[in-house]
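TL;DR need structure tokens for one chain.
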Amino acid sequence: MRLLVLLCSIAMPVIAWLSQTGAFGPDQGTISDRYPTLMVAAGYAFSVWGLIFLLDLLYAGWQATGTRRNDPLLGRIAPVAALGFFLTAIWMPLFSAGLFGVCVVVIFGALAALAWCAVQLSRGGNAASHRLAWLALSIHAGWLSLAAFLNLAQTIVAYELLSTSRMLGWSLVLWAISAVVLLVLNQRMRGNVAYLAIALWGLFAVWMKQTEWPLPGAVTSAWVALGIGALLAGQTIALRMRRR
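>> reply
TL;DR here they are.
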């Protein structure tokens, strides 16, 4: 199972590179531009995948070597982490193929898997001996906590499931649900600063994009994103002070 984690961690950047070359169809940026929403982030935000893939590779190699091979906590999360990496990898060609409904199921599955791993490491891991695993999986889960809802919003627009001319109402509902997910997971992780940092990165990128976006309701969506970030930061400070 440790080897499977490593193989899946390698598959993610390889498939990402192939996706950007057009091997599976249009790249993610091209498809995303076809379906503008009130929850899309500025393009620079997605460069964080480079950091995510690097940390996941380091974690995967680290957990498969040395004394870590006998660590019970790393062993328990290994199959779930492998599943999260696998789902992350296959999401990319599915999105390029325009299978948006399947993509939503896949990305929320990846979020559930990696968030569970991050919670286990935050609550049951030794801070020193599991630091790399905690950092890699917390950041991956943090980004997916936002990206999953961005993906859901684009799916709604792509299939015209709700109004594409008046998007603010249902976008606010998605923002509310995403805020609950972020706050609940952060609470279960006892104020995870890595999770917070990557969520703030994404939320600020949404604010940047939406303040310049011509869609009706974009400015409101921008400030909602910033407000969620402030709530999450405040919660993290309170949780960490309580722990002390």
